[in-house]
Amino acid sequence: MGFVEIVDAVGFLLGNWWLSRSIEDHQLGIHASFQGTAELFEDEPGSSSVIGGRAHYEEKGDLHYGSYRGPASRKLEYVRSDHATAMLYFADGRPFVDLDLRNGTWRSSHLCGHDHYEISTLIRSSTIVSESWRVWGPSTNYEAATTFTRRLDPERTTQTMDKPV
After folding, report:
1. What 3-state class would DSSP assign to 85?
2. 138 φ/ψ angles, rounded to the nearest 5 degrees
3. Residue 154 — pLDDT band, cuts 50, 70, 90?
4. Nearest by Cα to 84 from 122, 113, 123, 51
5. Rounded to whole angstroms, how far apart are CA atoms 57 and 37?
6. DSSP E strands: which ranges in 66-151?
7. pLDDT at residue 108 above 70?
8. Rounded to whole angstroms, how far apart are CA atoms 151 and 81?
9. Separation between Cα atoms, residue 39 and residue 14, nearest integer Å
10. What is the pLDDT of residue 35?
11. Which residue(s) pair with 16 in the sheet?
12. Most buried pick, 79, 92, 95, 138, via CB within 10 A?
């Protein structure tokens, strides 16, 4: 399978996604899972297409983690750095990681206190994105694998994409 070249990272990711996440908590010896939806949306149509433009990511679903069974969510903000790249921020405004999908794959890292996050993203097609996390440090040790599957929107007839490399 060849890689997919993305000419507009934020534009490609805009929309609604199903997501399935598997989590291996090595510190606690727990296998966990998350099933839900994710959406990357603009405040105003076209607002994220300019340098510095912003889009908001919201994820929500059901988490099964040890004895916990219930709702979970997270929010991020995407800020366009240029047409192919973006910077991701936590909901409280702290920087998280950069994202560059030009070659259809990306690796980034983030230090959170003494914990280290290694994140890999792979565009498998116009409708499937894989993300892997490896997180370790004094307070955590886990791996997570997420598959995002685009929820097709009949009103969105074009995708900012893509050509096989």
Report:
1. strand
2. -65, -25
3. low
4. 51
5. 11
6. 68-80, 85-90, 95-100, 105-112, 115-123, 128-137, 140-150
7. yes
8. 26
9. 7
10. 98
11. 39
12. 79
**Statement: residue 152 has pLDDT above 50:** yes
3-state SS class at 59: strand
One-letter amino acid at 144 equals A
Q: Looking at residue 1, what DSSP letter applies?
A: -
CB-based contact 62:34 (threshold 8 Å): yes
Question: Model-level pTM?
Answer: 0.86
Q: Which token pair is 127?
A: 């409708």
Amino acid at 159: Q
- Edge-to-edge strands, sheet with 85-90: 95-100, 85-90, 68-80, 54-65, 30-41, 15-25, 140-150, 128-137, 115-123, 105-112
Q: Which of 133, 129, 134, 162 is nearest to 40 (CA)?
A: 129
